[in-house]
């Protein structure tokens, strides 16, 4: 703990607030006593200067372009680890010993099926429903199917809910896909890896055998790993805020799914691919770059820019390599969308507008190209992001529930509306 204090002078009064240091990264001014001392609130819409919690899970250095899960760099994890090991790391804080990993994988694998009644629940949706709409509903509804894991005061139930969510999200996402194309739901296969099983549930049909390509399974696993957690982003903060009222874990994760859907957040992968397709050919890039720079045009380069990264998003680097690998394997390395993406990146990164604002490709810029090449429709992109991010949401939710300092999240406001006035009868209005 640092001895530093921050001094705030308002009129003739000066107030002192402690400065708290983390293990790395910016320190924070502890203003919890601000209102009691001064009668004032801080004002920070968009939380651009606010640390809403302390956490030991994920660290981002936006200037360096660094992302660490429990201290381990994302590129090392993407290269040497795999998604379930990363899940263990995020949930329990350390890399697992071989036996621990075995046990964890076994547990997750034994929870991959969903209650048979969930199939009927799915049938209530229109076939053309967006998979994210379906997932928001189904994940929230899990609380109605798994009563034995909604008591958040019981650590055993919290643990069961966590494992269930990690295990069932691929099944739910795959079911949302199958439902939308009118094919039968495919049950999980427990001899497959987490990523291979997801591809199997999405792309196999009961009528014939299906073998998952190990290179595609590896690429899928890497996409899951790269999306597994990302500090206190909008959906994670939503999960924490929902959880701060002691809502059950399934309800909290459903809130996260709903928030992730927005195009400024997880929905950007879908929007990025649509944009690349709309651009279509390399010669049209300058027109779109000009639109992105025009303040009178709402168009933005989707998959570009980030609130925290003011350098290349480290996930985008791995994603770009994976895109080349997957397209190479599928024999479509001359894919016009990839060519447009690479050229757009080159042009944008040398344009003063993007350079001055430190706008770099983010994780969503290349992920859509890979998912598209694998055969996923754009509507599934954010659903895949949601299934990958579930472990991060749960790890953050568990951390918050176990924190003795936990308080219900309750921001205040700068009120700018009408002051107290008397009700007027209809006749006098
Ligand atoms: N294209 C063109 N201009 C941009 C872009 C973009 N993609 N992103 C930011 N800017 C400009 C913006 O107009 C502003 O310019 P000025 O200072 O002249 O007004 C400046 O850069 C700062 O932008 P901001 O909107 O204040 O930045 P923010 O931190 O509030 O927004 C963001 C971050 C990710 C919402 C934004 O960059 C954006 O809309 N990007 C496109 C959507 C996207 O790719 N989202 C995925 C984010 S990563 C994955 C995830 O979080 O889910």
Output the keywords.
globular; mainly alpha; 429 residues; binds carboxymethyl coenzyme *A; 6 strands; 3-stranded antiparallel sheet
Order of strands, main sheet, comes to: 1-2-3
- Through-space gap between termini: 60 Å
Give the fraction of residues assigned to helices.
Answer: 40-55%
- What general form does the structure show? globular
The profile of the biggest β sheet is: 3 strands, antiparallel
Q: Quick recap of the structure?
A:
The chain has about 425 residues and is mainly alpha-helical.
Describe the structure.
The protein has 429 residues and is mostly helical. It is built from 18 helices and six strands. The strands form two sheets. A three-stranded antiparallel sheet has the order 1-2-3. It has a three-stranded antiparallel sheet with strand order 4-5-6. Helix 7 packs antiparallel against helix 18 (381-402) and helix 12 packs across helix 15 (336-349). The longest helix is centred in the middle third of the chain and has 27 residues, at 155-181. It is globular, with a radius of gyration of 23 Å. Bound molecules: carboxymethyl coenzyme *A. Carboxymethyl coenzyme *A is lined by residues 233, 264-266, 268, 292, 300-307, 357, 359, 362-364.
Write the layout of secondary structure elements.
Layout: E1 5-10, E2 13-20, E3 28-29, H1 34-38, E4 58-61, E5 66-69, E6 72-73, H2 74-80, H3 83-92, H4 98-109, H5 116-123, H6 131-145, H7 155-181, H8 194-203, H9 214-226, H10 234-243, H11 249-260, H12 268-279, H13 285-293, H14 314-329, H15 336-349, H16 352-356, H17 364-374, H18 381-402
Antiparallel strand pairs: 1-2, 2-3, 4-5, 5-6
Helix pairs in contact: 3-18, 5-6, 6-7, 6-11, 7-8, 7-18, 8-9, 9-14, 9-17, 9-18, 10-11, 10-18, 11-18, 12-15, 12-17, 14-17
């Amino acid at each position: 703990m640092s001895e530093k204090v921050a001094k705030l002078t308002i009129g003739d009064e000066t107030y002192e607030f402690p400065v708290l240091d983390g293990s790395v990264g910016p320190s924070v001014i502890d203003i919890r006593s601000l209102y009691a001392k001064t009668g004032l609130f801080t004002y920070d819409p968009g939380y651009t200067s606010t640390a809403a919690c302390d956490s030991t899970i994920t660290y981002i250095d936006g200037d360096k372009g660094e992302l660490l899960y429990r201290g381990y760099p994302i590129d090392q994890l993407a290269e040497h680890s795999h998604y379930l090991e990363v899940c263990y790391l995020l949930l329990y804080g350390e890399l697992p010993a071989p036996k621990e990993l075995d046990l964890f994988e076994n547990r997750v694998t034994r929870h991959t099926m969903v209650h048979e009644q969930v199939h009927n629940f799915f049938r209530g949706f229109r076939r053309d429903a967006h998979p994210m709409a379906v997932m928001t509903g189904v994940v929230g509804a899990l609380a109605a199917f798994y009563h034995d894991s909604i008591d958040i005061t019981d650590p055993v139930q919290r643990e069961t809910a966590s494992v269930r969510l990690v295990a069932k999200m691929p099944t739910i996402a795959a079911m949302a896909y199958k439902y939308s194309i009118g094919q039968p739901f495919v049950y999980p296969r427990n001899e497959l890896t987490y990523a291979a099983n997801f591809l199997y549930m999405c792309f196999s049909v009961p009528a014939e055998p299906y073998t998952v390509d190990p290179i595609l399974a590896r690429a899928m696993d890497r996409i899951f790993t790269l999306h597994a957690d990302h500090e206190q982003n909008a959906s994670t903060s939503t999960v924490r805020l929902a959880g701060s009222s002691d809502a059950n874990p399934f309800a909290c994760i459903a809130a996260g799914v709903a928030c992730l859907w927005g195009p400024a957040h997880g929905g950007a992968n879908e929007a990025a691919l649509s944009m690349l397709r709309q651009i279509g050919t390399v010669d049209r890039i300058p027109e779109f770059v000009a639109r992105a720079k025009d303040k009178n045009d709402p168009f933005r380069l989707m998959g570009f820019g980030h609130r925290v990264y003011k350098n290349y998003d480290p996930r985008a680097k791995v994603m770009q390599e994976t895109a080349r690998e997957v397209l190479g394997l599928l024999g479509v390395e001359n894919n016009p969308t990839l060519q447009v993406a690479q050229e757009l990146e080159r042009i944008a990164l040398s344009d003063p507008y993007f350079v001055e604002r430190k706008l770099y490709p983010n994780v969503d810029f290349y992920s859509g190209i890979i998912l598209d090449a694998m055969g996923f429709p754009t509507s599934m992109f954010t659903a895949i992001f949601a299934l990958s991010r579930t472990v991060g949401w749960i790890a953050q939710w568990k951390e918050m529930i176990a924190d003795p300092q936990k308080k219900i999240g309750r921001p205040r406001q700068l009120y700018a509306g009408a002051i107290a006035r008397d009700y007027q009868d209809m006749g006098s209005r």
